[in-house]
Amino acid sequence: MPPTPLAATTLAVVDMGSNSFRLEVGRVEGDQVFRLDTWRETLRLGAGIDDRGNLRPEARAAALACLARFAERLRGLHPSGVRAVATNTLRVAKNAASFLPQAERTLGFPIDVITGYEEARLIYLGVAHVLPSSTEPRLVIDIGGGSTEFIVGRGMEALRMDSLKMGCVGMTQRFFGDGRLTAAAFAAADTVARAEVEAIARDFDRSHWTSAYASSGTALALAEILEQNGMSPAGITRGGLDRLRRRMISAGHVRHLSMPALKPERAPVLAGGLAVMAAAMEELEADRINPVGGALRLGVLYDLLGRRIQRDVRTATVDQFQTRWRVDRAHAGRVAAMAQAIFAAAVDDPEPAATQRLAWAALLHETGFSVSHTGFHKHGAYVLQNADMPGFRRRRAERSRDAGAGLPRQPRQDGHGAGGPGLSRATPGVAPRGAVPPCPPADRPPAVSHRARQAGRLPGAGPLAEGASAHRAPAGEGTGRVARARLRLGLRG
Question: In angstroms, rounded to a whole number, what is the distance separating the alpha carbons of residues 311 and 316?
Fold first, then answer.
């Protein structure tokens, strides 16, 4: 089905969280995104992991049913305007690799299982677009279902980030799984949560920020409950959390918990969220935290917008990696130019995004040289498979062992795969238009052809070796689309 007229000005994000799945659609006007529609379903996917670390069949079925409903709303939108992200539960589930292809086919779009670091970056980006402009350093805490992100930033830039594997769903399961709200359970939860936060407190304490904010459902729910029940005059305070804890203990059980502003879907995970928030405030010495909207979904929308208006964070990431790993930029640029020329000649009407991913891969193909010349492609592959690369996905199950040895074999829809940006095999059923054809001979010619590391005429090449030529390949001279493309470019080797 062709994209609708709205597709060119519409962006959408699917947030597959540990507590709930959310769909948000926004309209682009200039450099701003205005929300058009939101859809939330509370699935508590984080509670669907069994004792062996696998996502249970019923949890998988519920997630797929939800994604099918989201797919109806996303139908007709252009792939470049949609991004689906999954967080902690699918980072840790042992059977995530078998579940994700099915989930992608159901949704109709690729799903990025983002790292905690990338999640923190996107959260801050969303929050920064909601808060008033300021040059003062700010702390942002985001308590999700399975993890909690901590960010200190100034303006639109996140300066330091971290992610802890504890959230409202996980903590509730661990300490309040039977629904009982006891002083002993709260004390145990507080001890564990404070120990987690203590490990990062030096980087996020009061010396690094002047004001503190908290985003996402847990923070908004806590602030509203405290204010409407007279436990806090404004925002979230340590005294207010103490009063709420005592109120919950007096109720004795979650089914007896009833108070103004407490929504039924929030009640089952409120105790775990309170424990994390209280521990964070104590360890970071925050007297008051102000709730704020935005967070992950808005951050993803603005990240997508940045890709459209030439403020793509992935370009900055590639540039930073070239500097960090001392890549020969001139040589990498020549390899990238030649790879793009071969791609353009070999693929009918190539997708611009696929061409860009190919260029990024070429620019980083020698990342491992600063480790060792011998086996540099293996060192580079390891770095690019495991490093935090803002803007790119990281899916271990899809990474090729040999990626990073030269150029990508088959880019993904939007980003990060084997051996570098966009290098993993595409998921069946959601492959992008203009993907590199699976031709092994295309894997290394540009890098090999430029082995002399000199600009100008290439060995075995005609006068148009570094630019496209219009002449046809002679009959019988090479087979396959890449071979013909190389001949059109004047390459005989």
Answer: 9
Question: Nearest-CA neighbor of 280 among 184, 192, 360?
Answer: 192
Residues 335, 322: Cα–Cα separation, whole Å: 14
Token pair recorded at residue 45: 């996917």
Distance of CA 154 to the CA centre of its chain: 21
CA-closest candidate to residue 459, choices 447, 467, 449? 449
110: confidence class by pLDDT, cuts 50, 70, 90: very high
Label residue 486 by pLDDT band (50, 70, 90): low
478: left (phi over 0), alpha (psi -120 to 50) or beta: left
Report the side by side order of strands in the sheet with 288-291: 157-164, 148-154, 138-143, 211-215, 288-291, 236-237
Q: How many Å apart are CA 41 and CA 30, to the nearest integer?
A: 31
What CA–CA distance (Å, rounded) separates 48 from 89?
9
What pLDDT shows up at residue 450? Answer: 61
- Helices 183-198, 238-251: axis angle to 10 degrees equals 150
The token duo for 272 is 């775990």
Type of residue at 202 = R
- CA-CA-CA-CA torsion sign (52, 198, 221, 177): positive
Regarding beta strands 236-237 and 288-291, do their DSSP bridges make them parallel or antiparallel, or are they unpaired?
antiparallel
Give me Rg for the CA atoms of the chain: 25
Provide the residue type at 59 as one letter: A
DSSP 182: -
Q: What's the rounded Cα separation, in Å, for the pair 368 and 309? A: 31
Span 210-240, pLDDT tens digits? 999 999 899 999 999 999 999 998 899 999 9
Residues 6+ apart with CB under 8 A from 90: 16, 45, 96, 99, 100, 113
The β-bridge partners of 403 are: none
Are the beta carbons of 321 and 364 closer than 8 angstroms?
yes
Cα 78–391–332 angle (5° rounding)? 105
33's CB contacts (< 8 A; 6+ apart) are 11, 26, 27, 298, 301, 302, 305
**What pLDDT is attached to residue 44?**
93
Cα–Cα dist 471/346, whole Å: 14
Sign of CA dihedral 482, 488, 492, 493: negative
CB-based contact 357:411 (threshold 8 Å): yes
Q: DSSP letters along 215-254, please? A: EHHHHHHHHHHHHHTTS-SSSEEHHHHHHHHHHHHHH-BG
User: pTM here?
Assistant: 0.67
75: left (phi over 0), alpha (psi -120 to 50) or beta: beta
pLDDT, tens digit, 9 for 90 and up, residues 165-185: 999 999 999 999 999 999 999
Run of H or E including 20: strand 20-29
Q: Rounded to the nearest 5°, which phi and psi values hold at 449?
A: -65, -30
Structure tokens of 397?
């199950």
